[in-house]
Amino acid sequence: MEIERLDEADAVVVGHEQAGDQSVAASETRDLQAYRVEYRATVEATYAWDAAALELRQAWEAHETKWPPPEDADTDGDCPLDPEANAEVENACGRIREIAENIITPAMRAIESEDPDRHLIGLENCLKGMDRIKEKVADAMRYKGRSLEEAVAALKDGVRFTLSYSEQRYTSGVIEDCQRLLDRGFQAFDRVNSWEKDEYKGINGRWREPDSGLLFEVQFHTRASFEAKQLTHAAYERLRNPVTSDVERDELQEFQRKASAEIPIPPRVTDIEDYSPEQRDG
């Protein structure tokens, strides 16, 4: 759909009959000017990203032609957990789903309704797949020495939400929505601002549902940063695969850097600071 451009001739003429009207008119003029600046910036960012995204898709198609998808390292189909641990993790996944559906998702929907200038996206995928959770729990037990209970409790993104903003509203929107999460009773756990990183741009925050102690993630994106994340997901998965060659890894990382470099940067985005649990607790 063609996006209508706003021309200089579209400006509203302000009347000057009365002093009171002048004050109101001046305010309306400032609001209109701010809107026009924001509108132009949004349109320009949209056109620039759409052109870049097309080239990135073509580049990824060429990469897949050159490097056919590798087979998974674990091809025997076995669960990474023993039967008892597997059953416990499946029960934990059931509890996670229940808390997500009955407590966290309704709260996120309510937060979304408080501001029409951004919205939740990908809500149908807010629950991490059970197989991936089992894999993460098994890795935490094997490589970090955690117990099953500790590994399940340490999951930070078994439930994940994504809020999408325009570039111009991004910084203020993220700050306001973080406050809304606090106002809903969720406890801040940590936050990572990756807008200055080379291979991924966005902000990821983790929150705790206080009654259950369940951690969940909220990602804060623009349309471009979210689409870049989707475009580079296959590259990310290949980088996670131990059978991927070092030569291909270099190309995959370069592809991620190229995608990130094309994302329009929201104004003042570095004002949003990282914090870890230790920094948060002082």
Features:
11% strand; single chain; 9 helices; Beta Polymerase, domain 2; alpha+beta; 5 strands; 282 residues; flat; 53% helix; five-stranded mixed sheet
CATH architecture of the largest domain: 2-Layer Sandwich
Radius of gyration computed on alpha carbons: 23 Å
CATH topology of the largest domain: Beta Polymerase, domain 2
Amino-to-carboxy terminus distance: 50 Å
Largest beta sheet: strand ordering: 1-2-5-4-3
What's the CATH superfamily of the largest domain, by name?
Beta Polymerase, domain 2
Blueprint (SSEs and pairs):
Blueprint (H helix, E strand, L loop, with lengths): L18 H48 L16 H31 L5 E3 L8 H14 L4 H6 L6 E6 L4 H14 L3 E7 L9 E6 L6 E8 H9 L1 H8 L5 H16 L15 H4 L2
Parallel strand pairs: 2-5
Antiparallel strand pairs: 1-2, 3-4, 4-5
Helix pairs in contact: 1-6, 1-8, 2-3, 7-8
